Structure formats: C-alpha cells, structure tokens
Write the structure tokens for this entry.
Amino acid sequence: MRSIRISTPAAGLLAAAALLLTFGGPAPQSSLGAGTVSAASAEADTAQTGSPYVSTHLYFGTGRHDGKPPITDEEFDKFIADVVTPRFPSGLTLQEGRGQWRDKDGDINRERSYELTVMYPVREARARNADIEYIRRLYCTMWELESVGREDVRSQVDF
C-alpha cells in the first residue's frame, strides 16, 4: 500500500475515512440481523430481568498428600449428597475438570478437580456464607487438604 501525505485541514478526516475503508467501520443495527440488540438495550434489559443473586464457585481438588490415594468419585459424590445438598437443596451445578495449584511447599500439583456452583439471593448472603465456609473447612479436614478455592460473583438471575 502506498502512503500519501496530505497537509490540509481535512487530513485527519481523510485519514479516518481511509482507516474505515481499510478495516471497516461499525455496522448499522439494521444490517446485523434479526434478534441482535445494542449494548445499551442489552444492559437495560439485564437490569430489569431477574433478581440480584450471588453465584459462588467452589474449586475442590482430589489429590492428597503423603502418598495417600486421590479422593474417588464415589467419595466426592457422597460428600456432595451428605454435606452440600442439605445446605443447598434448591439446586447446584457440578463440573469435573483438571486443575493445578502450588502447595505450601512450592510444589505444583496437577489433579482431577470439581467446580461446584451454587446461587442464592443477595439477601441470603450472610447465612449462605456460613454454609459455604462449613463446606470448605469440612472438606479440607476430612481429606487433610490445604484449601478449597472460592469465588463469589454478583449477578442477575431468573429461573
């Protein structure tokens, strides 16, 4: 591509036009197809849909220390049934994964892991926090583990 130097007041406008022609500009809403909404209207719709909730994600590892065997699927399922479900009977989501983390000795551990997601209304956050911390402490105590990761995300939820 050839470079052209223009030294008129319109140089900035021409440069912007050249960039738009080269890389494309924003598409008009009408050309995006049916069902497409703008960011502003999506934000407005989201603000009006659902109720304020907290989505808590817990990250459970299954590897153990000192040569002990990993936590089995059956052991983990029993923990969910006996400990988690009674505290969150309305529902939960469980995903299996592979994770890694650095332990207190600086070693990198790779292990099968689970991500558990529970959602609850913001107004229940204080009471649910006690349940979540109980779950985390018990899992670590039962299996002699260092930690269960936790992430809390505020969201708008509708069922």
In short: The mean pLDDT is 80. Helices lie at 11-23, 39-48, 73-87, 125-143.
